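Worked Example 4.2. Consider the chain below.
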Amino acid sequence: MDTVLSEQPPDSWDAFPLFQILNDYLRQDDNLKHGRFHQHLRDTFAPHVVRYVDLMESSIAQAIHKGFEREKWELKGNGCATSEDLFWKLDALQSFIRDLHWPDAEFASHLEQRLKLMACDMIESCIQRTDIAFQQWLKKSMPFNATDYQLPGELCAMVNVALDAKQQSLKLCAVDGIDVHQYHSKIDEIIEKTSHSMTQGLIAKLMSILENTLSKLGRYDEGSLIGSFLSFTNVSGSGRELGQSYINCMRTAMDTIRSKVNDELWTLNVFELWYTDQVKMLNTWLSERLNHALHPYQFTCLAHITKTTRFDMGYHGTRQEIVRQPTAKAVEERLRTEYERMIRIGTITFQDIKV
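Applying the procedure from the previous section yields the following structure tokens:
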């Protein structure tokens, strides 16, 4: 055996099957287990195992760096091309070392701890690179008409990477589901913070569309120059068109998230948080105009947005206690009051949209 091994070229791993055959045979025989030849086999292959792990660690680290440099963030598997490759390699390496059934318990424990730490570091690097890319994509400017914005599928791919990393980390950083070395709790905390940041960033991006829409409605405020002018003209339209453009944008974003994000619970959570922020922003906008009557254009637009948003969110699984939350009811009550006022003074008719 020593002669054969001495003739192997450097960094050749062809001899590992030989180790597995001999080791499996020796460790199952009580008379040969931990005997002189078994110890010699262990001492001979220990440097090869260490060298193999060193090279694999370097190789995987380089693959992460190069992979994310050219990552296109297209949906692949449970994440993207780089993350899929990373998790496969980490799992394959751990499986290979585990299947060696190393005879020395102390050295086997050392290898296991090193591989778990390696996985923790690699997953952390993956999450950091993904988060950097996510923030860069969020910073991309809106189109001239904010309601023309289409949520990029690349953002969903990045969310999937973080969600998959959370699933993979338990297997790759813990030992049989037990966080022996506390690596899993460390990486899980990092993933949770990143996932939360992604959720908030995504919602903020989507909320900027509603903010832009409300800004346009603000031009019709009672007492403003354009509001006074439009009160005597018929060039403003009904307001339904602006409301529908927002609804179309919202529906496109919801369909993108629903079809491209792999985790249903994450999707429902985003929809509920997004809906809550929408009704809060609508309520704040209306509260700022509590002492002013709404222009028919404003009312028609807001009534259409409120009614359709409530229906769509319920259709996508948002809980009724979220859909019917007090803030949403306050918005509806204000719009109902405005509707009744406009009916009395004849600025709208019964055929116009109702809340």
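The mean pLDDT is 89. DSSP finds 13 helices and no strands in the chain. Compare this with Example 4.1 before moving on.
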